[in-house]
Amino acid sequence: MTLQKTKGPAEAATSPSHGSINPRKDKEMNEVHATTSASADPAHRDPLAPRGAMSLDIDMAKLRKMSMQELRDFRDVLHMIGEITAAFSFQERFLGEEGGRCNNAGDAILELCEFVGRYEHALVKVARAAEPTTSKDVEWRAWTILSYEADCADELAPFAVLASEAVRDEAHAKTRERFAPKVGVAK
After folding, report:
1. How remote is the C-alpha of 51 from its chain's centroid?
2. Rounded alpha-carbon distances, angstroms, from residue 29 to 19, 26, 115, 122
3. pLDDT tens for each residue of 90-125
4. What is the pLDDT of residues 127-146, one digit of tens each?
């Protein structure tokens, strides 16, 4: 039997030795890591679980590395998955005995649908934060944002404002490209 040497009396969680209570300062506590089960210890892994990660995270760094066209294309896929998943959740076989609530499989489908929706929302936030310079990238960015907003819109006027701003931004980018000095071109 091995005895572990203790440091002394217990300290409160707010003690400075426990690190900062400011989540931005100690970033590690906010990072999400994929786990394979309730216990990351392979000895305690569920024997029925498949190999590999058992959870998915939204990889913001990967989203930020995507081109504007890739963001638009990936958003289309996420949206389609979300629509199909939501449709399945309303099928009678996934409803509970009361008819209004989901059964266990229906709850799992709704969780998947919510995750896909959060992923799509994160992707659109990345597109909004981007500052593309080429007119084509400005257009891809606009399609990403506008397609998302169209799906969420309740009224036409606010959406029309977004669409007209997107057209303006693309026109500005095209004007910049047309009148930008050509490097390496003889006159």
Report:
1. 24
2. 10, 6, 21, 21
3. 899 998 887 668 899 999 999 999 999 999 999 999
4. 999 999 999 999 999 999 99
Token reading at 136: 């084509």
Calculate ∠ Cα 96-98-104, nearest 5°: 20
Q: Which region holds residue 11: left if phi is over 0, alpha if psi is between -120 and 50, else beta?
A: beta
Residue of 139, 144, 137 whose CA lies nearest to 122: 144
Distances 72 to 82, 86, 87, 144, 147 between C-alpha atoms, Å = 15, 21, 23, 5, 9
- Tokens for 134, please give them: 């080429």
Token pair of 100, please? 């209004």
The sign of the dihedral angle between the CA atoms of 51, 93, 114, 116 is positive
Residue 71 scores a pLDDT above 60:
yes
Q: Read off φ and ψ for residue 95, nearest 5 degrees.
A: -95, 150
Q: Taking Cα atoms as reference points, which of 158, 162, 161, 144 lies closest to residue 79? A: 144
Full-model pTM: 0.70
Tokens of 28: 């590690």
- CA–CA separation, 89 and 92 (whole Å): 8
95 DSSP assignment: B
Torsion angle, alpha carbons of 70, 76, 77, 80, to 10: 180
Token representation of residue 69 = 């066209």
